[in-house]
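P.,

For your records, the input lines for the assembly:
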Amino acid sequence: MSTQKNNLDVRKTTIDDQITSMPMPSSGTLLSSSNPVEEDTALLKETFKEKYKWGFVTDIEADSAPPGLDESTIAFISAKKKEPQWLLEWRLKAYRHWLTMEEPDWAHLKYNKPNYDEIIFYSAPKSLEDGPKSLDEVDPALLETYEKLGIPLHERAALAGVAVDAVFDSVSVGTTFKDKLEEVGIIFCPISEAVHEHPELVKKYLGTIVPYSDNYYATLNSAVFTDGSFVYIPKGVKCPMDLSTYFRINAKSTGQFERTLIIAEEGASVSYLEGCTAPMRDENQLHAAVVELIALDDADIKYSTVQNWYPGDENGVGGIYNFVTKRGKCQGDRSRITWTQVETGSAVTWKYPSCILLGDDSVGEFYSVALTNNYQQADTGTKMIHIGKNTRSTIISKGISAGFGQNIYRGLVKIMKSAEHARNYTQCDSMLMGDRCGAHTFPYIEIKNKTAKAEHEASTSKIGEDQLFYCNSRGISTEDSINMIVNGFCKEVFRELPMEFAVEARRLLEVSLESSVG
Amino acid sequence: MTTPLLEIKNLHASVEGTEILKGVNLTVLPGEVHSIMGPNGSGKSTLSSVIAGHEAYDVTEGSIMFNGIDLLELEADQRACAGVFLAFQYPIEIPGVSTKFFLKAAVNAIRKYRGQDELDAMDFLDLVEEKAKSVNLNIELLDRNVNQGFSGGEKKRAEVFQMALLDPLLGVLDETDSGLDIDALKIVAEGVNKLRSPERGFVVITHYQRLLDYIIPDFVHVLMDGQIVKSGDKSLALVLEEKGYAAFKPCGCSCGC
Ligand SMILES: Nc1ncnc2c1ncn2[C@@H]1O[C@H](COP(=O)(O)OP(=O)(O)O)[C@@H](O)[C@H]1O
Ligand SMILES: [Mg+2]
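Structure tokens returned:
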């Protein structure tokens, strides 16, 4: 195990003050390390194979747009959703901007770029044509799908203490516990519904955190987004239950472009969970989501993701391209945004949930476990932009690579001139299994205020033969030992997850690492 | 004739192509304590790792029988379940895994192998408390991650505690005494002595004869350059102490060969 510790107190750079759009360069960095692995281990002999039991397809009649994208596709989507003119115009503005953009290639990723002419940008079960109905009227085939995924939607059977919005391809199937939440003034509904029911809120906040011109995928999303969740927590309200959205891609050749917007007013707090799965297919499917969070004074948003999109097979065929823009703004003083993610799925992941720490004393946190097995690739991390005084951020990243998996941590900590006494702590650990996988870390640190401090720790370890032998020598099987060691490695992240999600995350890691021993 | 607990014959083992063990022979009967002494680098830890089944070591020749079964046929975890315990010279740290959780998994894996019911949390804690007492181990250590933040002495004591907990037939102690002060040494030795029984056997590897004042061995063997060059009773340890290992070199001289 090699450990580097860098205390970076004050570093002056000459970088512009651009904050909303934050491209990450792939060169010219302050700190960069790359840790390819060379040695052999006995573990190498074991093949990690994966069982993906969420890979079934629901046979349901769908209403889809023809493949490809032009202004008429966007008009089609907008018409399907009976959107107001301003939103259609916003979409078209994004689309026209997108045509001028280049797909980014600075990430440490190798894949065939999606062919946008072949993607179906809108697909919805026919039975949901007129938008989501009450859960009693929803097509049983859809309810069954979610039942099979372990997400019962009938409130009788629904997960205790969790309200669920279920998004199937391009539309929401239904939302549980809506009435109960309304009693305390919380709005939790599909964003397509919010556009109609709460246009003033949507108009006020949509695209303010992630502007339509932000980056290639976010711009595409702005043009074609279909569904996603909308959450509004009024002043002083602590959300009485966890809110969650379960995303499911079902139809072939479709892309999923969901958009989520969460607003926590002064003193409000909410814990939001997100889960996702897709059928097993030989083709790559695109998922390009945008999530925007806004926390006002003393508000607290905890956003947890267990990402389990289909990762492709053991030869790297198929799987989801997960190109996601997630950003939160701590607008108010003493506000807090926490991103926790467990990324086990997808063929390719490109994702940097970020925090803009504008309010004084605001706090941003990022806890991440990313696992890549077989030919999966993940380029993920976060950006913490400190603007307010005494802002604090914590980054804990755990990357696990097995098989031919490539795991990249990319993080930016930017402390602006105004951010007196800002603090950042970053810990970035990589674990390697076998000698054909890779782990790389690209931490960028820019500090423009002398009173600020950023601390960075990084380690790379191979799942030690010695650790395995020690466990074995106490009677514990190799498979159980690997699970134990990996779980221990991820502990600091798992303890940030709500209970049921932590259990789910642990189970997912076990399945993803299932090894044929001996 | 009693079945030997451990019967090693002409054992050759190498790591990364270099032969370290060059024909070791050793027979331990139930109830016996054998001590193996030898200078640094003579292959003591290699021998204990090979007995416990570390995959990095290739056995190129010879055999190891354990209680009538071919030990070399078993994986390391199966050997532990069958009753082999190795107290590590350098116990390994496992970040994020609590010692209690780790040991419960170990106890239950072994119980399952032996056809016993798994222990529930309460019974497990009772067992832990009882065994911790026998080596004066601060039970709070068990809430820490495996061997993390343990002092050198605590690590060694924790190894003996684990041995008591897992109840093996054969205990191999690899320099469990090194790095201990005299009080800690006495505690560890006492813990081992309590485990001595007519069925159980021990291989006690040590660099110093000091430990053997407290764990009295039935036999002492001198391991040099991958071979046992001399065996005797406990008085051999005293001779070693007096004359040093040089006197046992195969060539008999005290040169550096
Ligand atoms: N994993 C290993 N890789 C390379 N050499 C090793 C390894 N383990 C042991 N050795 C070598 O084998 C010899 C014996 O080591 P060891 O068994 O640890 O001796 P002792 O425990 O008697 O001090 C030493 O020369 C050591 O360097
Ligand atoms: Mg040794």
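Two observations worth noting. Residues B 15-16, 20, 38, 40-46, 56 surround adenosine-5'-diphosphate (ligand 1) (CB under 6 Å). Residues 59-279+300-328 of chain A form one domain.

Regards
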